[in-house]
Structure formats: structure tokens, C-alpha cells
Automatic annotation (TrEMBL):
SUPFAM superfamilies: ATPase domain of HSP90 chaperone/DNA topoisomerase II/histidine kinase (SSF55874), CheY-like (SSF52172), Homodimeric domain of signal transducing histidine kinase (SSF47384). It comes from the Bacteria. Its main location: membrane. It is an enzyme of class 2 (transferase). Residues 8-124 form the Response regulatory domain. It comes from Minwuia thermotolerans. The modification 4-aspartylphosphate is found at residue 57. One of its GO terms (molecular function) is ATP binding. This is histidine kinase. It is found in: Membrane. InterPro entries: CheY-like_superfamily, HATPase_C_sf, HATPase_dom, His_kinase_dom, HisK_dim/P_dom, HisK_dim/P_sf, Sig_transdc_His_kin-like_C, Sig_transdc_resp-reg_receiver. Its EC number is 2.7.13.3. PANTHER family: HISTIDINE KINASE, TWO-COMPONENT HISTIDINE PROTEIN KINASE.
């Protein structure tokens, strides 16, 4: 701190000559001074304004310097307002008591102005440093309080977020439980209804068969024979739908058991193609089978695998244009997996509808489904049947170009020449 810095000094002395002389000498050094003639006057001035330091004479009549010091210290500590006691050399015995009472320093009379100025500067610098430290501490406390408040807000938000997530998890678990229960109830309902429907359907089909056979022996009954045929065909169609629903339900419930055996690939195709020959003739569609791997045998459930091929062959025929050709083939890929492929040049499926046809009852074009008696069960059922064998279902289609469906049978299900399933085969 330079001497040009304005420091306000309260000079307290009962002798006017002493306080006036000390004030003048300090002002010549750049200090600002105010004088008080006794303790009460000094205390009054301290209540009215701020001073940087007090020079206080110890020996004063009435209220002594020591009494005045104690009253000052009752309101302000030594770091807030430095007090330098002024004493005569022969009064130095009171300095110890003054220091104990809160004096910061002392000077002796006659006053050495250089020493006095140095001690004033020292105390004022300490006061200012202490004030800066207090301000820094207050600022730190304020910032800590603000940060604490921020953290409390963050903690509140985190607690709210944790609660919200827990509530959401609870809601999701409950929704999952309800969905699983609903799915189980749906599967049980469909299974029950499918079984309940099968019995009367079998009766309808059986008796319509009897009627049709017996009417053939009676003249002029062609019209009734035709009616019986319609009943029989409709019954078979409805039974296929019920069987599809039942099979999907059993697969969803994990209750399907594979009845596996060694089956030739060309036999699978031949028997499946024979079952759609009548439909192919109706739509004027030919089916060509190229069996480069037809002589291979696979370990599978023959009925279910034939069902998968039959579904895809039926779709290929139904959605082909009149006079078109459906190609069926069996090939091995580079990994040794068997690809059973059925390709048509029919109406095809748009990319945006591809996911839909893989879902139960999903149909790419409901108008085509109604025209060809489609239920939307064939593709998802076929996919499930292939996956039951550890394989995968692939479909590639483009509108008005056609559809290619591939049932990929894993290498582990191919029978080797010795008649054994691959070492990676089904346990």
C-alpha cells in the first residue's frame, strides 16, 4: 500500500496539542484524519462513520483509553478495526493489558512519525487482507450454498427421475405380465376353439362325401352332387384354416413336438406338388422342379416340412398370372446348408408390405387375399415351421416381377452317405 492511498485515521487524545500535531503530521503523509478529545466522542464518531484505524491514547481522564478500547472491541474485533495504543514511555506497563484487551499494536510518545506510519500501514494492510479474506469466505459460502441448492435441485430431479423410471418399469412389467396372460389366454382360446371346430367340420366333410358318393348312383342328381361338392370343398378349406390356427397356436405355446425321420428332398417336393396340381390346373400355372440335390436326405418332421412347402407352392400358384410357370428347386449353398426355393413371376409384394406378410393374418393386399381366399396365415406358419427345424425363412419380392421364397435347412440336418446326421446335427 502506497502513502497516496487514502487511509482514514481517528486520532483520540485528551490533549488538543498532541492530537493536533499528530493529525497534521499524518495528513502531510497523505492520511485523512479526524480528531476526538475523549472516549465518548470517539465512540460516537465510530457509530457515525467508518475508519481504517484508530490511534488511541491510553491515559485520558474520565473514560480511559483502556475502557474505550474494551467498548470498541465489544462491537468490532481486531481484524475489523485495528487500534494502535499511544502511550508515554513511562506508561509502557499498561501495554500488555492493552494487547490482551484487543489492541493491535502500540507507539510511544514522543511519537516517531516514520514508525507510526509504518505501523499504521501494517495494520491497515492486515485489515484489508482480513476483509478480503472475509469477503472471499462469504463469497465461497454463498457459492457453496448456491451449489448446494443446485445439487438439492438436481437430487430432487434425480429422485423424481428414479421414481418415474421405477414407476415406468413397474408399469412395463405389469403390461408385459398382462400381455403374456392375454397371449396365453388367446392361445388357449384358439386351441380350444380349433379343436371344437374340427369335430363338426369333420362331420360336414364326411357326410358331404357320403352324399356326393351316393348321389352318383341316382339319375338326375347332378345339381345336388354339385351342392355336396361345394359343401365338401368349403369344409376342407375351413379345416385348413383351423389347422393353420391350431399349428400356430401350438408353436407359440412351445408345445409342438417334431416327429423326425429321414426324408428324401425330391419326395418332399413330389408329394407337395401333387397336392397343388389341381389348383395349378385351375389357374393354368405349371410347376417345374429342378432337384440337383433332390436325392439328398434330411432329418425332419416330414408332415410339417411338407406343409411348409405346400403353403408356399399354393401361394406361388394363387398369385401367379394365367399361363405362368412356378419354379421349385433344391440347392446347397457355400456353407453346406440346403435351400428349398420356390419362385414365381406373379403379382409380387411391395417392400413396405414385406413385414406385414410375416405376421399372422397379415396381408399385403386384402383385395387379392379375398380374391384368392387368403387368410394371412401361410407365410408366418411356414416361417415358424422352418425355424422349428433350426432353419430360416427368406423372402425376396418385387411388385409385378414376382416372389422368391427360400426355406433354408441347416447343414446339421442333412444325412451323410452312411445314413448319419451330421456331427453338428440335432441331439
Amino acid at each position: 500500500m502506497s502513502e497516496s492511498d487514502t487511509v482514514s485515521v481517528l486520532v483520540v487524545d485528551d490533549l488538543e496539542a498532541n492530537r493536533a500535531m499528530l493529525s497534521r503530521r499524518l495528513e502531510r503523509r497523505g492520511f485523512s484524519t479526524v480528531m476526538a478529545e475523549d472516549g465518548p466522542s470517539a465512540l460516537k464518531l465510530l457509530d457515525e462513520r467508518e475508519f481504517d484505524i484508530v490511534l488511541l491514547d491510553i491515559m485520558m481522564p474520565g473514560m480511559s483509553g483502556m475502557d474505550t478500547l474494551r467498548l470498541i472491541r465489544s462491537a468490532r474485533n481486531a481484524s475489523e478495526l485495528p487500534v494502535i495504543m499511544v502511550t508515554a514511555i513511562n506508561e509502557r506497563d499498561g501495554i500488555g493489558e492493552a494487547i490482551k484487551s484487543g489492541a493491535n499494536d502500540y507507539i510511544t510518545k514522543p511519537v516517531d512519525i516514520d514508525i507510526t506510519v509504518a505501523r499504521i500501514h501494517t495494520q491497515v494492510e492486515r485489515r484489508r487482507a482480513s476483509a478480503a479474506l472475509r469477503a472471499a469466505n462469504e463469497n465461497l459460502k454463498r457459492r457453496v450454498a448456491e451449489r448446494t441448492l443446485d445439487l438439492e435441485h438436481i437430487n430432487d430431479e434425480l429422485r423424481d427421475e428414479i421414481k418415474r423410471r421405477r414407476d415406468l418399469e413397474t408399469t412395463l412389467r405389469e403390461a408385459k405380465r398382462k400381455a403374456e396372460a392375454a397371449n396365453k389366454a388367446k392361445s388357449e382360446f384358439l386351441a380350444t376353439m380349433s379343436h371344437e371346430l374340427r369335430t363338426p367340420l369333420n362331420s360336414i366333410i364326411g357326410f358331404s362325401d357320403l352324399i356326393r358318393q351316393q348321389l352318383k348312383a341316382i339319375p338326375d342328381t347332378e345339381r345336388f352332387t354339385e351342392y355336396a361338392t361345394y359343401i365338401n370343398d368349403s369344409g376342407h378349406h375351413l379345416l385348413r384354416i383351423v389347422n393353420d390356427i391350431l399349428d400356430l397356436t401350438k408353436i407359440d405355446a412351445g408345445k409342438t413336438v417334431l416327429n423326425e425321420s429321414h426324408v428324401r428332398v425330391d419326395d418332399l417336393f413330389d408329394r407337395s406338388i401333387r397336392l397343388v396340381d389341381a389348383m395349378a390346373a385351375k389357374y393354368d400355372v405349371s410347376i417345374d422342379f429342378r432337384g440337383d440335390c433332390g436325392s439328398l436326405e434330411i432329418f425332419c418332421d416330414e408332415i410339417l416340412m411338407r406343409r411348409a412347402l405346400l403353403n408356399m407352392l399354393s401361394n406361388a400358384v394363387k398369385f401367379s398370372h394365367e399361363g405362368a410357370r412356378v419354379e421349385a428347386r433344391a440347392d446347397l449353398d457355400a456353407q453346406g446348408d440346403l435351400h428349398l426355393t420356390i419362385a414365381d413371376t406373379g403379382v409380387g409384394i411391395a417392400q413396405e408390405d414385406m413385414q406385414k406378410v410375416l405376421e399372422p393374418f397379415g396381408q399385403a393386399d386384402s383385395r387379392l387375399a379375398r380374391q384368392h381366399e387368403g387368410t394371412g396365415l401361410g407365410v408366418p406358419l411356414t416361417k415358424s415351421l422352418v425355424e422349428l427345424h433350426g432353419g430360416r425363412f427368406e423372402i425376396d419380392s418385387e411388385p409385378e416381377v414376382g416372389t422368391t421364397v427360400t426355406l433354408v435347412v441347416p447343414k446339421s440336418r442333412i444325412i451323410d452317405k452312411a445314413g448319419n446326421v451330421s456331427e453338428m446335427g440335432v441331439a
